[in-house]
Amino acid sequence: MNQDAKKFAASFYGRVNAPVVERCRLNFCTDLEKSVLMSNFERRGWHQVGPDDEWNFYWASTQTCRNLFSVESGYRMNDNQIINHFPNHYELSRKDLLVKNIKRYRKELEREGNPLAEKAEVVLHGGQLGTRYVHLDFIPITFVLPADYNMFVEEYRKSPQSTWIMKPCGKSQGTGIFLINKLSKLKKWSREAKAPFHPQLSKESYVISRYIDNPLLIGGKKFDLRLYVLVTSFRPLKAYLFQLGFCRFCTVKYDTSVTELDNMYVHLTNVSVQKHGGDYNSIHGGKMSVQNLKLYLEGTREKSVTDKLFAAMQWLIVHSLKAVSSVMANDRHCFECYGYDIIIDNQLKPWLVEVNASPSLTSTTVNDRILKFKLIDNILSVVLPPDGVPDVRWNKQPNPEVLGNFDLLIDEELLEKDEPSSFIGKSNKNIKNRAT
What we know:
Belongs to the tubulin polyglutamylase family. Helix content is 32%, strand content 20%. It has helices at residues 3-12, 35-43, 62-69, 90-93, 95-112, 149-158, 183-192, 264-267, 271-274, 290-301, 303-325, 366-383, 412-416, 429-434, and strands spanning 27-30, 47-48, 57-59, 82-83, 119-123, 129-133, 142-145, 164-168, 178-180, 206-210, 217-218, 221-234, 237-242, 246-249, 287-289, 336-344, 350-356, 406-411. Helix 2 (35-43) packs across helix 12, helix 5 (95-112) crosses helix 11 and helix 10 (290-301) packs across helix 11. The longest helix is centred in the last third of the chain and has 23 residues, at 303-325.
């Protein structure tokens, strides 16, 4: 086979002919033997070892990370070891804690008299007047059940028949999610639940959020965005946004009728749900790149409006991270790649749905594999010092040329020095003006 044929075959089957990076002898350990991970580690000439051996780099599951940092384990990392989760990553990724931390963050700014916590009077769904945050209104109205049940009922009665979405706090991939539009349905579920819906008896918490019932549709179908955000430090906050995110589409056209309320192929964008639908397309996986979304919006809604939307999404990400920065265990051995799920409504307002601490590295399509290979490759380049050897004494300020497809979202250390490079990208000017 000649060289051109080899290149075509490699491209066709989704193999990435990335240049071999400079090799250095490192020991890595992983619980997740995904091809996009293993191929990146092997391409660097790293050597795989077990968790009880001497390792330098650990790509671990969240449970392994919790075990490793637990008091009972007694494990102490040395200066040349790094791991891919912060000890209490769940402060951002667990649905109830995310909401709690954002609400606390707002209240703190309010007490300080910070203009970011400004409120304004708005017309609610039911026609009544209410107050909302002007700048920090990026999560739907959410309550934790059973603890906030009475507050939820009070809010529900302001706009009866509104639709709400119920999600178990500790589950992912669409498990256990359902929609309600009547209090009676919630009470019926409570009676039928294995754990009675009672503050003293319930074993599992749920969040209930106002459903974004006016999502932006493309081709009549609902979608959300999966964006990857790399955090290398929480204090000072250092975060990067991966340019190659994607949209995940439902397989069935959006329908707000009561008869379709239980049809998860209409309402949930999770690939783990949609892949079981009869209309699922395994070639493109119901996905579209963020770049193509941007082009579509520029063509249908104008470039200035599109730029404003993308700036708002970056704003949302930065302040969700700021909301947890004070409570996160900021261990210098840690970094984390979070999967942000964002829904855009038909007014081009972004809403944060949830944050995942272990975004899927399974490749469902050829493009998926290429994207996730690049994601891991770029993460490794950003979190490792210039010599490629983990060192917690490093200041975690990578050279711009190694960022690859990452854009710097925020670096508070550079902000304190008032260096213009602390925010990168044309659309980030608004964030820099508002984020401090």
